Amino acid sequence: MKAVIVVGIGDDGCVGLSSKAMGAVARARVLAGGERHLDFFPQFDGERILIKGDIIKSVEKIAELSAEHTVCVLASGDPLFFGIGNLIIRKVGQEHVEFIPAPSSVQNAFSRIGVKWDDAEILSLHGRPIRGLITKLQSVTKLACLTDDSNSPAEIAKYLLSFGESDWRIIVCENLCGKEERIREFTVEELASTEGISDLNVVILLRKNSHWKPDPILTFQGEDEYAKRLPKKGLITKKEVRVLSLSALEIRSDSVIWDIGAGSGAVSIEAARIAKDGRVYAIEIDPEGIDICEQNILAHKTDNVQVVHGRAPAALEGLESPDSVFVGGSKGSLKEIIHFSLDKLKPEGSLVVNAITLDNVSEAYNTFRELGYLPEVSLIQISRGQKLADYLRYEALNPIHIFKVRKL
User: Fold this and answer.
1) CATH architecture of 106-207
2) Which CATH fold topology does 4-102 show?
3) In terms of pTM, does the model score above 0.90?
4) Key word Acyltransferase present in the record (predicted)?
5) What is the rounded average pLDDT of the residues 267-294?
6) Is the bond preceding 313 in cis, omega lying within 30 degrees of 0?
């Protein structure tokens, strides 16, 4: 028998437990769990551990007692589904832990509304920031959210409305399997003004439009799709250059990205769509540029982009270490930015620099060589077809150098 048995339990308490789970509780000398879980077993006469507040301290106590006693831990639903299970494994050791799961809250929620959930996105906002939710929604038709006090169902609905996301049916499942179970459907607008929802809830979002299809992840927008500083059209990275630069960044779905000199935010926004489970920091010093960048983030629904107002490299202090760094503008501090970025870049991370002027080309190349890197360099010269009366001619864009290094 394992030293720690983790038993999944629902709001129906002992009624929903299997004989194996009940046997694990009966044989235990220590019973741990939340207050409502422990209340299901008033007859238990061994030591009790209330898991509340400092969870890590409670799990350390469980690990300590498991050296001498059999410990049973009560947890909601499936303990390995956004639950305490993984923390117990880390503290006690996988070989010493056994799990007896119950259906998760998400399973119960979908079963109550009679909707299949093998194609649903699952997102926990319990103790996590809501930023990034909107970006994820751009690729899903069905999503289940676990909530908390800060990210309550009403707050989630208000956040959706701030990005114009109203084309959803929202079903709130409260106190699943308990005596006060309640299932209600809302529009986004209705839920935003609804109070009194139980803290024990699952929020399910279903698209109203059953024929909706997500945009392809790797669709790159033309410059006209973005608000930008006019007449300074050169302050947005051209589509063809964006394609090559983003490819060089080697972005994964969970990457952390710095976009230095973000301008209109086109690179940040398209990087964010690729890194839908990651985060993008758009660093920009110009107040007008910041306003335009935020407009574009709202319009393109990429809330995993955070705009950072300031001049690099000073503005980069305190940001989480990136997997990829793009430098589109430097305001005369290119050498310092390269040094700082390579220092903070994660191992094997990619640094990409776009340089238009000969001065920046020379400075970028020399800085990389001084640091012991031989960069990949591409000179990109693009010409686009332009109509001239009944003919088609070519109009050349500014040539641009793309430098790329991978951190040693």
Assistant:
1) 2-Layer Sandwich (3.30)
2) Cobalt-precorrin-4 Transmethylase; domain 1 (3.40.1010)
3) no
4) no
5) 95
6) yes
